[in-house]
Design a protein that fits this description.
This protein has one domain. It contains three helices and no strands. The relative contact order is 0.09.
């Protein structure tokens, strides 16, 4: 949330600068600052997603073992276990 709030804050600064017709040098710095905030958010999302994928793999493997079927994850990350579909 903190990173998102920071990006929103920087976005508002860009909007305010645009409304008052700030010089290009100022706008450039504000946009670069906003871009950095976006990259931090993206990095955080990637890390979180890796953790989610790892947890999904572990949980689906345990579930498959209990059902006695091979654990497979399809291309979109869903369990592809034949018995579960029947």
């Amino acid at each position: 949330m903190v990173l998102r709030e920071e990006a929103e804050k920087r976005g508002k600064l860009i909007k305010e600068a645009s409304e008052r017709h700030a010089p290009p040098e100022e706008a450039c710095k504000l946009i670069a600052s906003y871009s950095q905030a976006e990259v931090k958010i993206a990095d955080q999302l990637k890390t979180g997603h890796k953790n989610t994928e790892a947890m999904q793999t572990k949980v689906c493997s345990v579930a498959a073992q209990k059902l006695g079927v091979p654990a497979e994850i399809n291309d979109i990350g869903d369990p592809a276990m034949k018995r579960w579909r029947e």
